[in-house]
Amino acid sequence: MISFVLKRSLAAIAALSLASVSLTVGAAFAQDFPKRPITMIVPFAAGGTSDVIARTVAEQMGIALGQTIVIENVAGAGGSTALARASRAEPDGYTIAIGNAGTNAATYTIYPKLPFTPDSFKPIAMVAKTFGIIALRKDFPAKDLKEFIAYAKANPGKINLGHAGVGSSNYLICKSFVTAAGIDATLVGYRGAAPALTDAVGSQIDGVCDAAASVSQSINEKLVRGLVVGSTVRLATLPDLPTSAEAGLAEFEAQGWNGLFAPKGTPQAVIARLNAAARTAVETDAVKKRFADLSTVAPDPDEHSPEVLQKLVTRDVGKYRKMLADDAK
Fold first, then answer.
1. How many CB atoms lie within 10 A of CB 16?
2. What is the pLDDT of residues 100-152, one digit of tens each?
3. Hey, where are the domains in the chain?
4. What is the pLDDT of residues 63-110, one digit of tens each?
5. CA-to-CA distance for 172 and 324, rounded, in angstroms?
6. Yes or no: domain 131-229 corresponds to CATH 3.40.50.670
7. Which CATH architecture describes the domain 30-129+256-327?
8. Are strands 121-137 and 207-211 parallel, antiparallel or unpaired?
9. Distance of alpha carbon 78 from alpha carbon 163, whole angstroms
10. How far apart are CA 307 and CA 310, in angstroms?
11. Which among 59, 144, 207, 231 has most CB atoms closer than 10 A?
């Protein structure tokens, strides 16, 4: 009879053998990856912050990988529709998604019955750092933040601010702003940042909570009026737009991130290949120039790893669980 110790030894050897085979297969798969175009799911309509950043990064990632990266816009439920689709995708690296603090952290509090969890995804890399802005229709009566807050307090619930859907990063900008300002405003959800901005330009709503990447051009073209940026420094593309501290509302902070995610089970070797391509992409002159135009910042050299993105997700899940407890459905 084989002894208990021997049985355990044989089991351990078998497990190590399986692990070795798995690593070998994964490495071999990664060497040939990618053999066909990759789909990058964007959780919002075309034209918004996540979409613009995704297209900018995807183009350069595609060059690094030698394959086209196709953008697929899947709007709805503040990004949850897209993330559900991404979580069900084959974990082979050919379907990835771009997400942010809204879609990949706050959503778990706002929509507690989602068909996916944070563990449904493997982080690839952070690709951008963004800055939140409050912008108003150009004919709004308040001329600065102080006048806006006074107007809002004199007209509770009557001001409406658009965002990219409950759970989106733009929604979090709205929530952070109204909480810091102590005002009662109606937050209007859209299927993306672009439709919300269109309505603000057309004076269908009073303003938008948006990222500089998608709203700065409209501010510079005087289609909407910038009110404040939730940043510690002024943005080079919007030098006249005051920071929250300068405007008298230092409590308003809206500095966010965008990251790439793959379905759980994607081989680590493939994650490493995608991470390397993302790192190469954000370091190109083309991406740096486009990001500068969008008032968006690439990650620092020590922020490229999947582990850094995972820490951001974990941190923000806890952060927004406290902030959005009342919004849970």
1. 10
2. 999 999 999 999 899 999 999 999 999 999 999 999 999 999 999 999 999 99
3. 30-129+256-327, 131-229
4. 999 999 999 999 988 899 999 999 999 999 999 999 999 999 999 999
5. 9
6. no
7. 3-Layer(aba) Sandwich (3.40)
8. antiparallel
9. 9
10. 5
11. 207
